[in-house]
Design a protein that fits this description.
The protein has about 350 residues and is of the alpha/beta class. Helices cover about 40% and strands about 10% of the residues. The chain is globular, with a radius of gyration of 19 Å.
Length: about 350
Amino acid sequence: MVPAVFVFGDSLVDVGNNNHLKLSLAKANFRHNGIDFPGKKPTGRFSNGKNAADFLAEKVGLPPSPPYLSLISGSNKNNASSFLTGVSFASGGAGIFDGTDQLYRQSLPLSKQVEYYSKVHDSLVKQLGSSAAQNLLRKSLFAVAIGSNDVFGYSGSSDLGKGRTPQQYVDQMASSLEGYLKRLYGYDARKFVMVGLGPIGCCPSQRNKNKTEECSDETNRLSFLYNQALMAMLRSLQSELKDVSYSYYDTYSVMQNFIQKPTSYGFTEVKAACCGLGNLNAKVACLPISKYCPSRRDHLFWDLYHPTEAAARMFLDDAFDGPPQHTFPVNVRQMIAQ
């Protein structure tokens, strides 16, 4: 279907880059993460099993895009052949803006992810020659799932949101992201899978802050406003760069459906995390000392921020083949066929 999948983003799609960041506190390379992953081992994915990036690769018949930092460490040093079916640059704690990772000490922000991709691009050109590399990359998928940490940063303790209204902040997020997409375009990216933010005010970490255990309306509003700004930016980008195609996925409304009509989707628990401790299992992250639920399939959330493997699979199936009310202007399968 496509020759390669390149992944940019945060912990929703990190497949192990943060394992290689010595200072980072945003890590998932310990149990109980990975208890449903092949081999039942923690890999650095913030999940009980696979995440959406794994399912995207599966859909197009490719192996999961490996973490870039594992490909350039030790004996692997810049072995260009390992870049041929794609690479993941995603990193837990990363944002569109630099500095969203203050809480976690270290991540690869989007600026760094794009810089690393430019090195992969150059390696492929060196290995294949420029026209073959261009041909491979222009047919490949570039998946981008980022923005949650920027939204958390606005209302959090960082200085990111200082002096900006919510609308100004999300407009700045979208325009910064546009700059990075244009840089990727300059390095032969043409087909973009763009993931909108979910109602992240409904994740267990946010519900736990409200005595009523309701979602954080402020955080959800910011996510919603950002999605509007992102869609407007993508439309204008496509009219400016005629050979760009994209599929935007409306995570927000799909996740709201899961929360409002859980049993229709096979969920029995949409508020509490499966793995953690304390109220909603959201007082303490998913650590080796935490308890975890026996049935992950019926939980929307694995830990205080991230979906279970079951939820990630449903999101990705929908993004790939879903209806026009969730994927626009086309779903991923239709975009590949264009």
